Amino acid sequence: MSGRSGDVTGVDAGGGPLAVVALGGNALLRRGEPLEAANQVHAADQAARLLAAAASTHRLVITHGNGPQVGLLALMGDAYPATKPYPLDVLDAETEGQIGYVLELALDNHLTGQHAVTLITRVVVDPHDPGLVSPSKFIGPIYDERRARELSAEHGWTIKRDGERWRRVVASPQPKRIVQLDAIERLVEAGFVVVCAGGGGVPVVEEPAGRYRGVEGVIDKDRASALLAIDLGAERLVLATDVDAVYRDYGSAGQRRLGPTAPAELRKLSFPAGSMGPKVEAACSFVEATGGRAAIGSLDELPQLLEGRAGTQVLGNGPVAEQANQEKRHAVA
C-alpha cells in the first residue's frame, strides 16, 4: 500500500542497502546564487531526480545543509529592530521545515511507488561544548571583506574568510544523540524516503527528568549525518557537495584529486575547517565505526557515488574495501 492513501506504509516494494545522503548547502543552492525561493525549488527538483533514481536501488535517508537559509532568516530578523531576534535553534527548525518541504514536494513528484516524509529533528549536544563559545560554522550570504567588517561592527557578528570572500560564523557544537532516531528507524522500515536532521538538526541540551532545552547554535550537517548513519546501521554515507571529490592542496596549482582512500591516510592530511574538513572527518568516523563505505563528491554523480565509482571513496579494511576495489577494476576494464 502507498502512503498517499493515508496509511503508514511509504512504499510498495523496497530493499537494497541503507544509505544516508547528505546534501550540502552548495549542492542545493549553487555558490553565489541569490537566496531566492525559485532558485531553491529548481535546485531541489534537480536533486530529487537523482535521489528518486537512487531510491530504486537503495533505502534512502536524506539530510541537508541550511547555512545560506538560516543566515537569511537571521538577516530578516534584523530588519525588525523592535522585536528581539529569534534564537538560532528556532531558525534551525524553520529551515528544516522550509527546505524539507521543498525537497519532499520535489521527491514526491519524481518517486515511483514511494512517498517522502520530512521530520524536524532535535539533536542533543553537550552544554559545555567548546564549540558553543568558539564560532566556526558559516551561515548566510558571502560578502567582500569591507562589507563583512561593516556588518560585523553593526551586528556584533564573528566573521571569517570563506574561500575568496567572507561570511558570518556562529557556534557549532558536536552532535551527541539523535532524539528522534526511533521515529526515523520506523519510517525507514515502513518504506518512506526520509528527510531529516536538516541543517544538522536543532541543537538541544538534555536536562534532568528528560526535559530538553534549545541552545544557540548550528550543528554541522556532515557530523550529524555521520552520527545518524552510524546509529541507523547504514551501509553507505554520501556527502554530496559542489566539487567532484576531495582534493589535496585544493585551489593551488598542484592540487591533486584523491581517489579511494583509507581513513588513516585521510587523517594525515589537513583540510579547511569551514568546508571540506567536517566532510572528511564525518566520512572517516562513519567508516571507522561501521566498516561501511563513505563517499564525498558531486551531487550530479550521486548514482556513481553510491556504487563506489565516483568521488573520493573512503574505505576501511575487509570485504567492503575489497568489493570497492573489484568494482574499480571492473570499471577500468
How do you describe this structure in short?
The chain is of the alpha/beta class and 333 residues long.
List keywords for this structure.
11 helices; disordered N terminus; globular; Carbamate kinase; 333 residues; disordered C terminus; 38% helix
End-to-end gap: 42 Å
CATH class label: Alpha Beta
Shape: globular
CATH topology category name: Carbamate kinase
Q: Give the low-pLDDT segments.
A: 1-6, 318-325, 327-333
- Total helix count? 11
Biggest sheet record = 7 strands, mixed
Number of strands: 16
- Give the CATH H-level superfamily: Acetylglutamate kinase-like
**Helix share bin:** 25-40%
Order of helices and strands: EHHEHHEEEHEEEHEEEHEEEHHEHEH
Mean pLDDT metric: 87
What class do helices, strands and sheet pairing give?
Answer: alpha/beta
Q: Cα-atom Rg, whole angstroms?
A: 19 Å
Order the strands across the largest sheet as they lie in space: 3-9-2-1-12-15-16
